[in-house]
Fold:
Amino acid sequence: MSKDRKVEIVSRQTVFQGYFRVDAYQLRHTLHRGDMSGEFRREVFERGHAVAVLPYDPVRREVVLLEQFRIGAYTAGLDPWLTEIVAGIIGEGESTEQVARREVAEETGLVASDLLFALEYLASPGGSSETVTFYIGRVDTSKAGGIFGLDHEDEDIKTTVFPAEHVYGLVDGGKLNNSQALIALQWFVLNENKVRTAWGFPPV
Structure:
């Protein structure tokens, strides 16, 4: 944030605490014309920060995608079984790399032998502080596929291996409707050769 812009937090109160948290802020901030805004209220949904991983086998040129139930999609009136990538929330004291490797193991049964950082972005900045750190994870897909997830988190995750060309079709065909998968797979389509070069494989 530049020196000529500022945010004044008048008050902050936790108005809900459950599986997630909601904080209510009273604040003011610098306007584009230079003066300060009036005081106003905003609620922020606090769910932690996330790591997302697209498992990719550069030898076979295959990716692993997931399918699982999402209550948000259901309440929006959409098919709640979404095509997704690996993702999880960062726990206390964990690095993004540790979370990436843990989630790949839990959600696919695979080992991420290498991680390539792609980008970091805000998931929904109008009402949430959540950031997503996205990696490409190098895996061996020769024995990939099956049902995974943690029972105590009520996870039921189907993993499927697809040729990389399938990803190109998903992106071009408009068949994805969740931001993590859209952002990750669009990045992959634009940067697959960058990933391959970084890991010592020829471009395609």
In short: The radius of gyration is 20 Å. The first strand starts at residue 7 and ends at 17. The CA atoms of residues 181 and 190 lie 14 Å apart. The domain at 50-198 is CATH 3.90.79.10 (Nucleoside Triphosphate Pyrophosphohydrolase).
